[in-house]
Amino acid sequence: MKRFLLIIIASCGMMTAHAQCGIENTAFKSGEYLSYDLYFNWKFVWMKVGTASMSIIQSTRDGKPAYRSSLITRGNSRLDGYFMMRDTLLCYTDLDIAPLYFRKGAREGDRYYVDELWYTYPRGNCHLRMHRIDHDGEVHWKDAEYKNCIYDMMSIFLRARNFDVSKLKVGENIPMPISDARRLSNSWLKFTGKTTIKMRNSKMKFRCLTFSFIEREDGKNKELIRFFVTDDKNHLPVRLDLFLSFGSAKCYLTGMKGLRNEMESRVE
Asked: With 70 as the cut, is the pLDDT of residue 187 above it?
């Protein structure tokens, strides 16, 4: 009986931590599909250099209901001559968006590497089992455990779409601890206000909320991505400005289907 009670207590602790790392999903549903065009600034001229697509479907993970989300980016021949980009990101979360698994397979320039994360929630903590295959084929395994919730590039994106922005003030920072298979980043999302933007090569306009994703490294704050998300229940990213080590890039939404909510932010 004592052993049985200990198992029940430990299970309750794991469920509590799991729940704390989740958030109620009101922004998307299974079957959502988004497509984007990628542009790169080359000598003050913006050129289309590739495409990206993101999909979300309800699936299972370890026999339990889960969301399976994927993001695929593909550079075209214009970009390949300068910097080859072939990225595939995959993540599983539970239905409350608590992360369960993440994988990134990336061909960036002349490098190909793989990052994997497995999440468990023992003793009310967040445990990461990390696996990395470097571009030279060297394999790394590592474990880390944190008292706070930790996310990856995909699960934090799904979580952020479900923030209650009505409670945010301009200039407010939202901590966003993100890990890959190498390290945990000191990063946060900064709410910078509202604006209306026009899509490239389209007459569509959207009322948007703007956020900056910022990372602190070597004592300096660096803005990595600026997000423009629809000011409605979808919180759909319609434009992303990326500040890369080798230049600037932009992503524009070109197609969408399977949305959960009406696009009330669209300006006619």
From this structure: yes
